[in-house]
Design the sequence.
């Protein structure tokens, strides 16, 4: 049914029709008519953030933990420009976000009006698509199209810029069912010939490996389920990128752990030595491949991706398959089963044995000695005390992020929210707010570094106002840990601006916002302090003072190959075979 | 602290300096891109080329279907085969892009460009310019006592050749449209 209504009302109606239950935003002059409509209804909850960047990251957290698009409402000019980092973050990690921005009235566009910015111009390269709507009659159609574009194919952020006069004017509302079918319909079914070729390669491979990424998570729960079935049935070992953690359970028998720059020894060695690499929904990022001409030199590479531009972008695919992960895996399993469920079992047993040798290196080993908390120890204890909870983990960016990926385990998809592609410090805290909004009863923890956390600390106000019991687990080394590590390894130990003086007292900071603060600097008190954090019904800032100069290992130094990892001192060096001896 | 056996500060390699070493032979390709004729669509295409560091040798755009609101963008670009494939895939990702055709690989095509050349000169040079224009089937679209504007249509190579000949005869200004192209046959 089509109806006449104002543009502002249309926005709220379209969001309701799209099933939106929460939006994150911040009001301002150019969106006041929409905020007036938000005020006059109770179906959509509005979460007032403290900075527009926080709104976008919160929407990302919401989207990553639910699979549904996150929605943001901000004003023109600074409201829109503050959203740019979040948009870029969502673009890099393929997260569906719909951002609505106010704009100065159409007749003032181009006049350098107050709070005017060329929002569609600024956000063109950091959105999947954006629209400036100059006609109220087109508004509802554009909003419905925006939700389609954000979610279809490779998901991503979209933005709709709505001038204030378009919000005031009346027009015809078109419900989603009546909107004409978009020509944007990415291919989801994979080419059967290529899938059959991959099955044939899988049947005879001696050293196969699955290398999976965020595409599996984005494809939905069915993709993770099919992946698990495929791995269990074939017995082929599996590793994942940072973005793909949880698609295959960490407790699974064939799990190798994360790969890449700070990936596990066994995962990277297996990638280097495999003869068939099956990339499912990952994109050969530079943090994964290391040196390209030494990247897995002896393997045949299959690449399943919904985005044709990912294929052959950095690594030549021998078997390219464009399609949605769930659709392709379903066909792949069907073909594999119909051909008699064959694998090269004898070779696979040998391959697994070799991998078990690498596992014995125990690359994540560390020694918690003395009375200073090692960050790895803090995470190991956090893992032990929270893994049985209904738990969601967010992170900021840096060493703590890599340690979290290494020491925490994920059994299910959509439980791990981290800024992978863009590496946005300040992502984690607002993201945890979005996750908690989507899962009010769950234990939501943001593993943070003190420097990252300070970048969006104003969101403490949001957490307290909306009674969101997010736990901010800060590994405080009073350093920009990852920058410091690179300066130590690559810049002659010249620690240029990689430490912060005048850090706040985090306990007092929490109290100033009306939240709870916990400080812990003694390994003996750690468990009790973590339990206190978990049991507190409200937001907590946990200031965990850790070893200041700890480095994150294993590490593939820049410009090196997968088999040239640097290891922590506690790893068992003896277990490294001749090939591993080239490592330093 | 971990015991590291590498020499600290020893490497200048950046983690970002990891471009692949695919084939390095550059090719010229003519791409036809059918897009929705809507605000900003050309900016999206140009932004893609500048943002990802691709070349644009020539670009033309105009609406071709008024009813369906579609435009045709013809782009001549150079790059290694992998880069050309990337360009096509990246163009295909833009939401208002309907089709991307690589006319260089999809069979034979006709490529034409229009140019206007202003030639200033007197006496023998003026006569010679007219004589050459006749050979190239260029037509005079403006004339004064000491200048001509020639209009010429042809392949970019033909226009280059004509311009080279006009240069010593007083070529003073030139405007070119860029290449428009269509595949031959049906």
Sequence:
């Amino acid at each position: 049914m089509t109806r006449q209504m104002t543009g502002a009302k249309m926005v709220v109606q379209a969001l309701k029709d799209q099933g939106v239950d929460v939006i994150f935003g911040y009001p301002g002059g150019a969106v006041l008519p929409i905020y007036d409509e938000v005020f006059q209804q109770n179906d959509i909850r509005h979460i007032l953030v403290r900075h527009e960047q926080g709104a976008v990251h919160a929407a990302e957290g919401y989207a990553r933990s639910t699979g549904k698009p996150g929605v943001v409402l901000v004003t023109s000019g600074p409201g829109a420009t503050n959203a740019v980092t979040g948009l870029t973050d969502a673009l890099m990690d393929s997260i569906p976000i719909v951002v609505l921005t106010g704009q100065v009235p159409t007749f003032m566009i181009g006049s350098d009006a107050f709070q005017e910015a060329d929002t569609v111009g600024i956000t063109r390269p950091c959105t999947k698509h954006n629209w400036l709507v100059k006609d109220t009659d087109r508004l509802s159609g554009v909003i419905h199209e925006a939700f389609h574009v954000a979610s279809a194919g490779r998901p991503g952020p979209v933005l709709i810029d709505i001038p204030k006069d378009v919000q005031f004017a009346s027009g015809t509302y078109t419900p989603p069912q009546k909107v004409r079918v978009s020509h944007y319909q990415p291919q989801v079914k994979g080419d059967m010939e290529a899938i059959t070729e991959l099955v044939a390669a899988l049947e005879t491979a001696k050293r196969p490996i699955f290398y999976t990424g965020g595409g599996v998570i984005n494809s939905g729960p069915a993709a993770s389920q099919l992946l698990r079935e495929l791995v269990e049935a074939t017995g082929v070992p599996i590793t994942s990128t940072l973005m793909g953690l949880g698609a295959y359970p960490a407790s699974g028998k064939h799990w190798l752990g994360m790969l890449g720059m700070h990936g596990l020894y066994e995962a990277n060695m297996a990638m280097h030595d495999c003869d068939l690499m099956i990339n499912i929904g990952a994109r050969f990022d530079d943090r994964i491949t290391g040196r390209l001409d030494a990247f897995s030199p002896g393997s045949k590479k299959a690449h399943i991706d919904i985005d044709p531009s990912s294929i052959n972008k950095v690594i030549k695919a021998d078997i390219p398959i464009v399609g949605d992960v769930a659709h392709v895996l379903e066909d792949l399993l069907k073909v594999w089963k119909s051909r008699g469920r064959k694998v090269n079992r004898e070779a696979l047993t040998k391959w697994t044995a070799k991998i078990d040798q690498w596992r014995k290196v125990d690359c994540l080993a560390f020694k918690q000695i003395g009375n200073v908390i090692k960050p790895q120890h803090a995470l190991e204890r956090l893992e032990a005390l929270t893994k049985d909870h209904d738990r969601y983990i967010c992170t900021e960016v840096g060493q703590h992020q890599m340690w979290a990926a290494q020491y925490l385990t994920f059994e299910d998809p959509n439980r791990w929210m981290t800024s992978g592609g863009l590496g946005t410090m300040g992502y984690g805290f607002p993201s945890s707010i979005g996750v908690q909004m989507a899962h009010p009863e769950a234990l939501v923890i943001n593993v943070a570094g003190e420097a990252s956390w300070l970048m969006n600390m104003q969101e403490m106000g949001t957490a307290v106002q909306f009674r969101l019991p997010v736990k901010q687990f800060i590994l405080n080394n009073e350093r920009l840990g990852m920058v410091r590590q690179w300066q130590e390894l690559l810049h002659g130990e010249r620690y240029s601006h990689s430490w912060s003086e005048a850090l706040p007292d985090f306990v007092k900071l929490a109290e100033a916002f009306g939240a709870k603060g916990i400080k812990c600097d003694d390994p003996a008190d750690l468990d009790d302090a973590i339990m206190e954090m978990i049991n507190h019904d409200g937001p907590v800032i946990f200031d965990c003072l850790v070893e200041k100069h700890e480095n994150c290992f294993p590490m593939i130094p820049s410009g090196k190959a997968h088999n040239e990892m640097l290891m922590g001192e506690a790893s068992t060096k003896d277990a490294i075979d001749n090939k591993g001896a080239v490592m330093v | 602290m971990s015991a590291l056996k590498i020499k600290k500060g020893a490497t200048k390699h950046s983690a970002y300096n990891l471009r692949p070493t695919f084939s390095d032979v550059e090719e010229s390709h003519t791409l036809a891109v059918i897009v929705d004729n809507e605000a900003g669509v050309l900016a999206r295409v140009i932004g893609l080329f500048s943002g990802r560091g691709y070349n644009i040798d020539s670009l033309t755009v105009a609406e071709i279907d008024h009813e369906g609101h579609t435009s045709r963008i013809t782009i001549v670009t150079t790059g290694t085969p992998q880069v050309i494939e990337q360009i096509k895939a990246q163009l295909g990702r833009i939401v208002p892009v309907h089709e991307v055709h690589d006319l260089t690989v999809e069979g034979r095509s006709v490529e034409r460009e229009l140019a206007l050349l202003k030639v200033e000169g007197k006496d023998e040079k003026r006569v010679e310019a007219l004589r050459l224009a006749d050979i190239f089937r260029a037509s005079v679209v403006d004339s004064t006592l000491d200048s001509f504007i020639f209009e010429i249509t042809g392949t970019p190579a033909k226009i280059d050749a004509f311009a080279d000949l006009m240069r010593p005869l007083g070529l003073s200004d030139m405007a070119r449209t860029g290449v428009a192209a269509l595949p031959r046959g049906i």
